[in-house]
Amino acid sequence: MEKIGYRFRDEKLLRLALRHPSMGAENNQRLEFLGDAVLEMCISDRIYLRMQNLHEGEMTTLRQRLVCEEALAHIARMIDLGPQIVMEKGCEQTGGREKNSVLSDAMEAVLAAVYLDGGFHAAKDVIDRLWPDDLVAVKRAPDPKSALQEWTQAHMAVTPRYVLLSESGPAHQREFEVAVLLRDTEYARAKGMSKKKAEQSAAQTALDILRKNAGNKQA
Question: CATH 3.30.160.20 in the chain, residues?
Answer without folding.
Answer: 144-218
